[in-house]
Amino acid sequence: SDVCSSDLAVHDHGEHQASIAELRQLAQLLADSSEQQRPASANHLYRQFALFVGENLCHMHLEETAHNAVLWHAFSDEHILQIEQQLVASIPAEEKMSVLPWMLRAASP
Hints:
The chain is an all-alpha fold. It has 4 helices and no strands.
């Protein structure tokens, strides 16, 4: 149902934020580690990052199939575009500027 789909998306996004925070902590631990600790710290960070990437790819598949099907069933293309434009407009300008370099690197020429 629509509610289940949106509840699942909210839950997944919350887990992603927690995972990103954990990865940042592990990266800082690696940066602060001694030469002896560095291999184990790097290995732990790598493994957690690999799990995060795998989970994120599964999440994206779910968004691009099941969640999109719910959206397309509930809303017209025009309404979905309007929602997307409202979401983008709600992002503070400084946040948009911080993300812009990453988006430009990923854009095709």
